[in-house]
Amino acid sequence: xxxxxxGIMGPYRATSTHxxxxxEQVLNLKMSSYRIVVEWGFGNxxxxxxxxEWKRNQKNxxxxxxxxxxxxxxxxxxxxxxxxRNQITPPSLETYLKCYAQLLIExxxxxxxxxxxxPSL
Length: 121
Known about the structure:
This protein has 121 residues and is an all-alpha fold. It has helices at 22-48, 65-83, 93-105.
């Protein structure tokens, strides 16, 4: 379990002083299915690019651990754009790579416009 921070979000939790609203319950239900798909994606990356899982080769400070994972993610996402097998219609490879390049040049300043919308609640 990760603490909520920029880019990481967990489910809404009820507390002794706050019951979940119906909107929060629906959102938790919808997000749980997305989390499963994301976890499958992580598993697929580890299966297709097995060197990302070799703990002895991924030593912080001795090898570029983040880069060794980001490159397989980039390649896997490119493969998804080309194959199109996904729960949503992925962007074209050209659109994805333009957005990826934009993030490298101007990280998080102006979001890239994606050709799909998230489902409404």
